[in-house]
Amino acid sequence: MIDVPLSALEVAMVQAGTRAVDTLRDTTAFAQRLDALGYRRLWYAEHHHSPAIGAFPPVVLTAHAAASTSAIRLGSGGVLAPNHAPIMLAEQFGTLAALHPDRIDLGIGRGPGTFDEATARALRRGAGPTTDEEYGGDVAATLRFLVEEVALGTLPEPWLLASSDAGAALAARLGLPLAFAHHIRPDNTLAALDHYRARFSPSPWCASPRVLVCVETVCAESEEEAGWLAGPMNVVKAGLLKGHSEVAFPSPEEASAHPFTEEERAGVAAFGAHQAYGTPETVLRRLAEVAKTTGAEELMLVTPVYALAARLRSYELVKRHAATP
């Protein structure tokens, strides 16, 4: 049994043999089903120029989902500050919060959202990578604009996304809730969370340290099926281990035929040891372990599997078994 709230991250994987527009249509059914299941929040990630992930702006998906759901919180997880003017982020999410009071989150991250340098520069109008100081200034400016310029009433709930000590330190300094990308950098999780809690400075946004941890989660009726469903993402991870950023999201059948090297298998297995795959009993045990070890007040599940039905089934199984002793 899990005693912390459960949420979800939507990365909008574009499946081999389908079009991005098909993935986009699936996001509506996904949001509505998670709303009905009682998940606390659903966040959308920002990505660009990827063969495996749709380039759907989080603010647009948030607006669309908010209009077609009734209770679940919605927002960015995250919108990437270096790609946007702070005042525009404040206006966009401030407007959403005014239209959908107490349901909108503004999760802010740093990465470019792409592995392609030309795309990153295009997003930033030719500018190079953002420094720590520039990033911190952009986040602070966004928060300031929310209060001073937007003033539409109910404000979005701000979160800072991080996968390192540097991001955790910024969240602590600004007094923001921290969403940690355990599904990307599990080796950094505990040290970064310790850093955050030890240096947290209370703010009008957050009175005390507050942590959400994102965990890659694949749940099925059997361990074998969960392994089958996890196969496509393992192929993507194997490509990243070799420095190949342009890796499509294959079907489970294609993934089962992928010739993994021993090094790739070891890397994928090492990563998976920190995540949650398997039957409901196995997954709930792993999620409980992550919650206990990290002290997280909330867990966010990301389930990058092929086919909407299988992805929804994973979330359904977790939610059903999480509510029972």
Task: Name some characteristics of this structure.
single chain; alpha/beta; 12 helices; 325 residues; 48% helix; TIM Barrel
Q: Can you give a write-up of this model?
A:
With 325 residues, this protein is of the alpha/beta class. It contains twelve helices and nine strands. The protein has one domain (6-223, 275-321): TIM Barrel (Alpha-Beta Barrel), CATH 3.20.20.30. The mean pLDDT is 91. One of its GO terms (molecular function) is oxidoreductase activity, acting on paired donors, with incorporation or reduction of molecular oxygen. InterPro entries: Bact_Lucif_Oxidored, CmoO-like, Luciferase-like_dom, Luciferase-like_sf.
Quaternary assembly: single chain
**In which order are the strands of the major sheet placed?**
1-2-3-4-5-6-7-9
SSE succession: EHEHEHEHHEHEHEHHHEHEH
**Distance separating the two termini:** 5 Å
Q: Please estimate the helix content.
A: 40-55%
DSSP summary, beta strand count: 9
Biggest pleated sheet: 8 strands, parallel, barrel
Summarize the structure.
With 325 residues, the chain is α/β, with parallel strands linked by helices. The protein has helices at 20-37, 58-68, 86-99, 117-123, 132-150, 165-174, 189-199, 223-241, 252-256, 262-272, 280-294, 308-322; strands at 6-10, 41-44, 73-80, 104-109, 157-162, 178-180, 211-219, 276-278, 298-302.
